[in-house]
Write a structure and sequence with these properties.
The structure is a single chain. The chain is an alpha/beta fold. Helices cover about 20% and strands about 30% of the residues. The chain contains 5 helices and 14 strands. The strands form 2 sheets. A 10-stranded mixed β-sheet has the order 4-3-2-1-5-6-7-14-9-12, with helices on both faces. The protein has a 4-stranded antiparallel β-sheet with strand order 8-13-10-11. The radius of gyration is 17 Å and the shape is elongated. About 35% of the residues are buried.
Amino acid sequence: MLIGPVPVDHLPPAQGAAIVAVDGGADQCLRHGLQPDLVIGDLDSLGDAARAAFQDRLVQVNEQITTDFEKALIHVGAPLRLAVGFWGGRADHALAVLGALAGHPDRRTIVIGTDDIIFHCPPAFHMELPAGTRVSLFPLVAMECDSTGLEWATHGLHLDPLARTGVSNSAKGGPIFIAPARTGLLVILPRASLPAAVAALG
């Protein structure tokens, strides 16, 4: 689990998961009584109290080409990451997180917000969802996308972030299948769908 700098009041259960604090996310760990296994980033936002508390597990990556969120994706190996505390703060940081998801499609990560979860869609994605569950597809680049199990079919549509997106679609109930033609498609679901998303992506 990646813990970011945005205040987090409701952490998802992650028994047995490693906790990685990303720069100022270590301050949130300290606030919530969490013991991170690692604190990674350029550490320019790390508070003095957290720096002292977790000094034996600091990993400083000094380059400024990537964001701290990207540094965590690149340097932390895991089959699936739950990222908490990266959504709801500064808009530019939130947009950079979305770009990082698409820029590192092999680093499967679910970004968890107060109401939604967001992840980059694999080339062929299967999932079980109850009828009426909101399924939003947001392309960061122009692409085609096949799907089944959704109320509004996407086959034959040209999705484009500046023209046509697939927001506010919904599941018919049961299995859904999404197959984007290229990388860059984000899937946005209600937070209640987190366990199903973890099962599908893990």
